[in-house]
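Summary for the steering committee. The consortium agreed at its last meeting that each partner would contribute one worked example illustrating the joint modelling workflow. Our contribution is presented below. We chose a case with several input lines so that the handling of multiple components could be demonstrated. No manual editing was applied between input and output; the record is shown as generated.
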Amino acid sequence: AQTVTQSQPEMSVQEAETVTLSCTYDTSESDYYLFWYKQPPSRQMILVIRQEAYKQQNATENRFSVNFQKAAKSFSLKISDSQLGDAAMYFCAYRRARDDKIIFGKGTRLHILP
Amino acid sequence: SAVISQKPSRDICQRGTSLTIQCQVDSQVTMMFWYRQQPGQSLTLIATANQGSEATYESGFVIDKFPISRPNLTFSTLTVSNMSPEDSSIYLCSVVQGGDNQPQHFGDGTRLSIL
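What follows is the complete predicted structure of the assembly.
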């Protein structure tokens, strides 16, 4: 069975600094997708960034980028120039290509210090 | 991306009653899912809502407790039956709008509290 592990329950970063959130996963599938979702206190799940497993190039979305290491089954999220609005719960997610089911990690709560 | 409307946004219910949560999408979607997020926890998949057939439930979830309907490609309901305080959670609907590598998008969730 697939699993997603986020080893950092909470993290803090100074505003304008850079922070990296860790995620590892376990799967025997070859075709899958990886995502980072953000859940602010409003509880809405917001897609931050996604990565296709077949792509070697790391995905980037403005201040957000990933370090995808397929062999190591690692998928970390880097947030540059952290802003107060980045404070939220961040979930790493794995999705099987064959049935679109998503498995979420337990989440990392990110605090931004002014 | 699809606009997902989930109703109600929150409710407080009595033990032993049932509540139906609605998920309406503004366009046809291929896949619809229902998740539960218990307080302070991550999201757990309850079931895949299949259009025109019975939902596919994950381990630990059964149809008698969480009946699901999906009459068409834009609408689904989740009923939480015979509720107990352990059912107090956020319930989220999510959709995939077709095509490979399309992400799942989520509704705003229903916060359910059982007294």
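Chain B has a mean pLDDT of 92. Chain B touches chain A through 22 residues (CB under 8 Å).
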